[in-house]
Amino acid sequence: MYIHELPDTLDRAFFLECATLILMREGDWQKNLLAVDKGKRGDIIEPYAYCLSELDKVVLEEYAEDAAKNTAFSYEKFSSFIKGTLRNKNGAYSPELVFQPNDKMYNRRTLSYLFRTASDLILKEYSNNQNVKQEVIEILTKGGIDLLNIDQYAIRNVTLELPEIKNLAFSKVLNELIESKKEIINSFRIRNKRLFVLELANIGISTGGYKESQQKLVYQIAEGIGLDKETFDEMQEASAHLHKLARELEQAKQELFELINE
């Protein structure tokens, strides 16, 4: 892990936020959203945080630990930052992470906030789309939901899980996130950009491989921080090669252990 080599605490926090967003893109928690108690549905979809698997959480914690190296900002604070940016209600950045010193409200523009505002705009845009309405009704019916007693959160959750709308939500939030971190990005040297994308690729391999939707987000980040396509591809290949060597080393160690214990 090389995140500790990013020069500033804010750089590292920005990386953790990007990594969290990408890992949130896929997962199977949302398949059970209709079975959740009606009173709790409002806390599920915003911001897709239940899509994080246990492995995703472990990997993010490992990166939080790496981010805390060579800085006064502790692992506990970075770990808390990850949880805080996902918190639905009253979530806020740590007061020690001042991304926009001249914007008092910016400290509450967490991932959760960005997803809530993006979701509201997207749902409003699609509110009169008959194809979307029909698809939602079919999903609710198959899920055994009584349409006569349906609650707003069930409709909202199912709508936001539709592939087209989910793609739009994540892309929109990522654009907002990148735009809000322009001051940080403008300070990046080319080495920092390479480290940033290399470690995003490493996270994908560590969690079993990114799906196409996640790969698109990684490339969107690379574009957003000013990394060209050729260098992006090189970082992806370097990450894959590194993990291939790591697997071969582990296999060799296992074979040696078995040979010793024959």
Helix content: 55-70%
Q: What does the radius of gyration come to?
A: 20 Å
Helix segment tally: 11
The biggest beta sheet is recorded as: none
| Elements, N to C (H/E) | HHHHHHHHHHH
Q: Distance between the terminal alpha carbons, to the nearest Å?
A: 35 Å
Shape type: globular
Class derived from helix and strand content? mainly alpha
Task: Describe the protein.
Helix content is 63%, strand content 0%. By secondary structure, it is mostly helical. Helix 1 (9-24) packs across helix 3 and helix 1 runs parallel beside helix 9. The protein is globular, with a radius of gyration of 20 Å. The mean pLDDT is 76.
Short description:
The protein has 262 residues and is mainly α.
